[in-house]
Each structure stands twice: as C-alpha cells, then as structure tokens.
Design goal:
This protein has 367 residues and is α/β, with parallel strands linked by helices. It is built from 16 helices and 7 strands.
C-alpha cells in the first residue's frame, strides 16, 4: 500500500500538511490563536473553517506543533513557528509524537479500501490515547481532518468528549462545510475562519509546494477561488485548458461548435477519466456562476479564467434578466448532473445534455 493511499488528507502532488513549513496568507488566524494562547484563554476545541484548500490543515498541524513545543501555560510567543530541528517537530514529521493524535479516514480491513467516512471506532480510540498520555501531564493535541466526514456515530462519540473535555488537551476540527456538523458540536468549539488566498499568496503557496505554475497564477487564483487545493487540482488535471475549451465552446452562444462539444464529451467518457469528469462538472458550474455574476453586476469577474472569457461573459450575460436565466440554468444543470451520475448515465451523454441545455438557455428556449 502506497503512502499516498494511506493519507486521504493529503492533496495529490503536494506535501502533507504536517510537512508544510509555512502557512501563507493566514496571518490573521494565527494572530487570533496566539492572542488566545498568550492571554491564557485557549479554548479546548477549535473549529477551523473556510473553503477546501486554504490552509486549515496546515494551520492545525502548526498550532499543534506550537502547543506541544510550548508546554508552559500562556508563555510569551510572537509566532507559531517552531524550528525544524526541535524534538517535537522532528517527532511529528516522523509520525511518532506521543502527545498528538490524528483522526482521518482509514482503511477498512475487510474490503482493504479507504473508507468514505470517519467511523465511531476512529473517534473512540481517542480514549486509549488520552489514558496513555495522561501520565505525562503535558499538553496533548488532537487533529480531526475532516470533521465533515464523521458519520453519525462518530459525531456523537466526539460530542461526548467535547461535553467533558479532557484536561490540557486541545482539539482541532477541520471543516469545509461547518453547516453540516451537529449544532451541539459547533457550539462547543471556537470557530476560526480562514479566508481565500489572493493571487500573490497563491503563487507563494504553490511555489512552496514545489508546483511550477508558469504565468497562469492569475487564472488559477480566479478559478480556484483562492484555494491552493483547488489550484493544485486544476494543475494536476489540466483544468485551465479544460476551462479554456469551455470558454471557446460557448463564445458564440446560442451557436455551438458541435465537433468541439463532441470532443469534450468523448474526453469525459474515456476509461479512467472519472477525476476529469468531476472537474469538468465543477468547471461548468463555475462558468455558469460567473455568467450569472456578470449579468447581475454588469461587469465580468476579474481576472479572467481564460483568454477571451470577459468578452464571452459580457456577450452571454448583458443584463439582469440574463443573470437570472443563467442562475436558473446552473440549478437545473447541477441537479441533472447529480442525478445522471447517481444512475450511472453515460458520461458523454451527460456532458452533451448539459451543453445543449446551456445552448437552449442562451436562446431563451425552455429546457
């Protein structure tokens, strides 16, 4: 079993958050955490929220490393940085830190496949960690990545622990969609929201991850919404090229270049193209959203996600009526795509159906 398969909380092609030396673009969140620490009002559970890929997991690992390296209560500190040769940093990198517990999805021993949820046994195993580490009397840290993936039983098991928090233990719950968590879990945590990254921070974060993004940083920032994780998915799957194809395909709406549409559909139907199909669906939804935004605001979003996008958006969405039409189209297309994937509709047919519905919306025809 490869190391990558065993790490569901790692973005493909990027270092694991425990290995990321610096958190970029989240100075306000770090300052808020440091203030709570230095003033000796550190909450026992932190809910780290924000869109996927903005650095929540990196923050959790940095904060946990900091707490375990600064065992004294409320000692002076101006940064979460810990020297890489510090014993705690070295043990965490080697996954051998006895005061840290990490919960994420695990392999199902019966099927030998990665579970799609965090199950109750993953959370209940915390009790063993807490009982074994309590004798040391020092700080302990727990990272749950992500809390959104807990099933009902796991969430209830965690809730019991939050209701009676163990001494000198800090929990970090990473959540991309906190509205889906139990309200009782949210109410027992201090929420810390991490915002999207701007283009400059995006470039720095991608460089730190060893990604050569060329001259497309502006487009990556625009399409990823400031998420390094989404930017890396775009890079790994040629997402900028796919989006540029969509812009060209819809550049003359309601006219459609049918050979181009067929090529797009056939590419989505190729063997092993599941990840590309997911990305294509996401990009179509993103494009429709940018169309609606253009009509509503009277200006295309900047920067462009592909050459010629601003002209295409202005032509397709000149007014508020067009904005409403594209918003309705996005809702309709999204529902049909979800249904089509649920019933295993042929991917090529699904993509073509989507293209023709967009064409009808542009022509003011009923879907």
């Amino acid at each position: 079993m490869s190391d990558d398969i065993a790490q569901p909380d790692r973005i493909e092609g990027a270092p694991h958050p425990r290995e990321t030396p610096r958190l970029i673009g989240q100075g306000a969140a770090e300052a808020a955490f440091l203030d709570a620490y230095t003033e000796d009002r550190l909450h026992h559970a932190w809910l780290l929220t924000g869109q996927r890929g903005v650095g929540k997991a990196t923050f959790a690992w940095r904060a946990a490393r900091f707490l375990l390296a600064h065992d004294a209560r409320g000692s002076a500190a101006i940064s979460l940085d810990i020297a890489p040769d510090h014993p705690v940093a070295r043990r965490m990198l080697a996954r051998s830190e006895p005061q840290l517990y990490h919960i994420t999805r695990t392999i199902n021993e019966q099927t030998k496949r990665m579970r799609d949820m965090i199950v109750a046994e993953n959370v209940r195993s915390l009790h063993g960690f807490l009982s074994l580490s309590s004798a040391d009397g020092g700080r302990r840290a727990v990272i749950i990545d992500s809390a959104d993936e807990m099933n009902v039983q796991a969430a209830n098991a965690l809730l019991k622990m939050l209701e009676e928090p163990p001494a000198r233990t800090t929990l970090f719950l990473i959540s991309h969609q906190p509205s889906g968590l139990l309200p009782t879990i949210r109410s027992r945590c201090r929420e810390l929201r991490l915002p999207p990254l701007d283009a400059g921070d995006m470039e720095a974060a991608l460089t730190q991850a060893g990604i050569e993004q060329g001259s497309d940083t502006q487009a990556l920032a625009a399409l990823s919404g400031g998420s390094v994780g989404e930017a890396m998915r775009l890079i790994n799957l040629d997402g900028l090229k796919i989006y540029a194809e969509l812009v060209q395909l819809f550049s003359d709406l309601p006219n459609i270049d049918r050979p181009r549409a067929l090529a797009l559909a056939n590419a989505a139907a190729q063997r092993g193209a599941e990840d590309r199909l997911k990305l294509l669906i996401w990009l179509i939804d993103l494009l429709l959203g940018r169309m609606a935004r253009t009509g509503a605001t009277g200006a295309a979003p900047t920067p462009e996600g592909a050459p010629g996008e601003a002209q295409m958006l202005a032509r397709a969405a000149p007014d508020l009526a067009a904005a409403r039409r594209w918003a309705d189209c996005a809702q309709d297309v999204g529902a049909r795509m979800r249904h089509g994937r649920a019933v295993n509709l042929d991917p090529a047919a699904l993509v073509l159906d989507t293209v023709f519905r967009i064409q009808k919306a542009a022509a003011h025809q009923p879907a």
